[in-house]
């Protein structure tokens, strides 16, 4: 659970040489309820896409290209109504 709710709508941390997994990078449970755009492209992220990203129900853009990720895209992402770019 998140101790502080962040009112971010747009979060761009692309091209920052980030290393690790998405799960390590952000704590998803209730922390970003208004997030619409999440750019994590051009980093060194590994692992899979966490199923918890489906909890970001206002998400419209999820940009993950040019990382070292593997695995499947969680089915829950297909249920985010406004997600138009993955």
Q: What are the defining features of this structure?
A:
globular, 86 residues, three-stranded parallel β-sheet, Leucine-rich repeat, LRR (right-handed beta-alpha superhelix), mainly beta
Structural description of this entry:
The chain has one helix at residues 22-25; strands at residues 10-12, 19-20, 37-39, 44-47, 61-63, 68-69. It has 86 residues and is mostly beta strands. The chain has one domain (10-79): Leucine-rich repeat, LRR (right-handed beta-alpha superhelix), CATH 3.80.10.10. The strands form 2 sheets. It has a 3-stranded parallel beta sheet with strand order 1-3-5, with no helix packed on it. Strands 2-4-6 form a 3-stranded parallel beta sheet. The chain is globular and about 30 Å long. The chain starts with 9 loop residues before the first strand and ends in a 17-residue tail after the last strand.
Structural class: mainly beta
Contiguous runs where pLDDT drops below 50 for at least 5 residues: none
User: What's the CATH topology name?
Assistant: Leucine-rich repeat, LRR (right-handed beta-alpha superhelix)
N- to C-terminal distance: 25 Å
Radius of gyration: 12 Å
| Biggest sheet descriptor | 3 strands, parallel
Number of discrete domains: 1
Q: What helical percentage do the residues reach? A: under 10%
Number of discrete helical segments: 1
- State the shape: globular
Organism: Prunus yedoensis var. nudiflora
Membrane topology: Single-pass type I membrane protein
Pfam families: LRR_8 (PF13855)
InterPro entries: Leu-rich_rpt, LRR_dom_sf
């Amino acid at each position: 659970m998140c101790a502080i709710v962040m009112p971010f709508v747009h979060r761009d941390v692309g091209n920052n040489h980030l290393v690790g997994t998405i799960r390590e990078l952000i704590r998803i449970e209730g922390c970003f309820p208004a997030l619409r755009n999440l750019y994590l492209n051009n980093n060194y992220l590994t692992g899979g896409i966490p199923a918890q990203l489906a909890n970001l129900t206002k998400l419209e853009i999820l940009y993950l290209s040019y990382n070292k990720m593997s695995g499947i895209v969680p089915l829950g992402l297909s249920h985010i109504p406004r997600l138009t770019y993955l």
